[in-house]
Please model this.
Amino acid sequence: MPIKLPLLLKILVKPDYLPDLDDSEWDLLVRQARASSLLGQIYYLVMEGGYLESVPERVRHHLQSENRYFEAQKKSVLWEIDNISGTLAHLDTPIILLKGAAYLKRGYSVSRGRIFNDIDILVRQDQLDRIEASLKQKGWLSTHLNDYDQRYYRQWMHEIPPLKHHTRGTVLDIHHTILPLTSSNRPDIMKMFDASEPLVNEVNISVLSKTDMFIHSATHLFHESELSHALRDLVDLRLLAEEQGSELFCNELTNRAKELDLSWPVSYALYYLKTILQYQPAECNHDHFGGKEEKTVPLFLAPLFTRAFMPNHHSCTNFFSPVASWLLYIRGHWLRMPFYLLIPHLVRKALARDKNKKKHGRFFLTNLNKGKDMNKMLGTIGLVVGVAGLLLSLFAGIGRISGSYYLMGFQSMTLLNVGISMMVASCMVKLYSE
Model:
């Protein structure tokens, strides 16, 4: 079924429309692109097409300002990478740049105009202590200082708590694998280390192979719980695919994804590149992944991701947008942690937020499509669902202990599972509404 594309998507699919935009359309395009972190990409589409003279003067200022900001950040990030490289050079251990930093250092087209908030690196898990100690000696300090958050990152996640430089404010994420340790899907990260490509004139600094870059980006996107940058990440995937410039790419991608046990996120990526951005890499089709295109993404997930890939602007939202965001938020957490860890984690985080609100007052960081009324309504719904789930679980548990296998025509264990699921959903709602 064809998707009606918002203005930003129309331009990303066919930049030839740019010279035909009127002032009101340019105004809307700038707003949608800025909200989706793609204004820099629009600047490069304008420059590549030679459309700058047709752009209204006020809009031109916005585009040029965005590019100046990108160029300034580019210099800062490249300097920071060199600084990190020098700090860790004596350890003689491999350091792999990930995502934005890797694109920038490689000079790939995906880096052009791309603004990002932190630097990501991948290191071997057995070298974490040495790397963290060396960085702390140079002014990098750990965030998330409470004991629970430290344990959450170090015991369960794929990274340690982010480090932040005490004077420059740069944030550094240090990963030791690409998915949480508690995730059911855990690729052999050493295979990515073995295929990494060293950077010229850099000591121990490398990047993932082009194929692994695509797989990592797809895996990150389709395991995420918060998808405010989903469209930008999908554009990244298209540019990474274009960077390959080879008809052999799809065969390499298919074989590598199977080797790493990451076929499904790559399949999802190819599906949405075709569906949303109307782009299909040469020789790529979904038969490579053992299924027809229409069966690539589960029926219940397809409309959720389609909604998530719309520009992050109020002109592109509808009544279904907050529902889709919430359901994907639940799915992301569900993929991240098993049931027995997820419930206590969500309860603890929800209680911690309540405690923080009482201490500091209640503040909301909301965007245009999620206001205070929506937060209040979701919070109330979460409370009701949580209480109902608790009562149902107690009722079913007591009944089962007393020897009643059936209650109200249902199995006791079924009612218990439903009650527990309601409590999980309640915690999710409460966290999402904050």
In short: The chain has a mean pLDDT of 84. The CA atoms of residues 15 and 45 lie 7 Å apart. The beta strands are 95-98, 119-122, 140-142, 163-165, 171-175, 197-198, 205-207, 406-407, 410-411. The longest helix spans residues 57-88.
